[in-house]
Recover the amino acids of this structure.
């Protein structure tokens, strides 16, 4: 759905007054659609979710607490740059995403750092198909899915955090929640939602403050450091969201999602190793 479609949905939902706020609560996202693929069928360097990665020479498979991490996704940025109108992602290169094979890393604790890994390389040459380490449990390996991309608009699930001088009535908030419950349409709302950038499909609370505090060594909002740190919470933005997909063996908690977050400054500087991960589920 494009911006005109979002505006039409607001009008249909009885939210014409709130058209003024759409730019605050909408973000362009890159949706990842997947189709089955054999582990070795995908071309070297092709984007994928699951399967095995094609890594540059000298890059070793990440580990956490003595166990290799699960490989989550490989994104060829040549495939996606035409969908990023704001040019926030590098125009070329590769991203690889890994996560704790035991799925015991949730992102709420500063000690969780290291339980996921994001690797970026701006050089496509010399990629090598890398077989999973023998010590990686079979249950922590996922079937391969080839990936295609599309641009779409996402909406914030917590508009009060995005809009200056928020003044929606209770009725408007209820109508907005009803709109979100089937956005952009009922069939798509029930589908898998893997995406780069945009707003996340939040299952619990907003994650940006959690990322800000935990990444700075703070676990308790009552910590004297939290007031100053909280000012930087809105600097965090979604990098990648991966949904539960039982078909390939991915299940995050109770059918939840994993979210890789990054600050705007780190994204601009391509410091993907500074990302933070949150797992949320019901």
């Amino acid at each position: 759905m494009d911006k005109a479609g979002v505006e039409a949905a607001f009008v249909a939902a009885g939210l014409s007054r709130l058209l003024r706020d759409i730019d605050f609560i909408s973000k362009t996202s890159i949706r990842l659609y997947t189709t089955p693929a054999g582990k070795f069928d995908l071309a070297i360097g092709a984007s994928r979710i699951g399967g095995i990665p094609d890594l540059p020479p000298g890059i070793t498979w990440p580990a956490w607490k003595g166990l290799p991490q699960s490989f989550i996704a490989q994104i060829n940025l040549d495939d996606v740059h035409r969908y990023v109108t704001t040019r926030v992602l590098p125009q070329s290169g590769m991203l690889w995403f890994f996560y704790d094979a035991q799925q015991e890393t949730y992102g709420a604790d500063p000690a969780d750092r290291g339980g996921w890994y994001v690797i970026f390389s701006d050089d496509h040459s010399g990629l090598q198909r890398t077989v999973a380490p023998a010590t990686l449990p079979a249950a922590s390996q996922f079937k391969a899915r080839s990936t295609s991309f599309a641009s779409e608009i996402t909406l914030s699930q917590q508009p009060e955090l995005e809009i200056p001088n928020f003044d929606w009535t209770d009725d408007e908030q209820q109508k907005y929640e009803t709109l979100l419950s089937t956005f952009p349409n009922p069939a798509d709302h029930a589908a898998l939602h893997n995406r780069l950038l945009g707003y996340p499909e939040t299952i619990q609370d907003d994650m940006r403050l959690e990322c800000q505090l935990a990444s700075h060594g703070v676990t308790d909002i009552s910590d004297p450091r939290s007031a100053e740190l909280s000012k930087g919470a809105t600097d965090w933005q979604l990098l990648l969201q991966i949904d539960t997909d039982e078909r390939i063996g991915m299940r995050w908690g109770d059918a939840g999602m994993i979210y890789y977050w990054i600050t705007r400054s780190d994204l601009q500087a391509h410091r993907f190793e500074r990302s933070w991960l949150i797992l949320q589920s019901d």
About this structure: DSSP finds seven helices and 14 strands in the chain. The helical segments are 3-12, 22-25, 170-180, 186-189, 208-215, 226-230, 264-268.
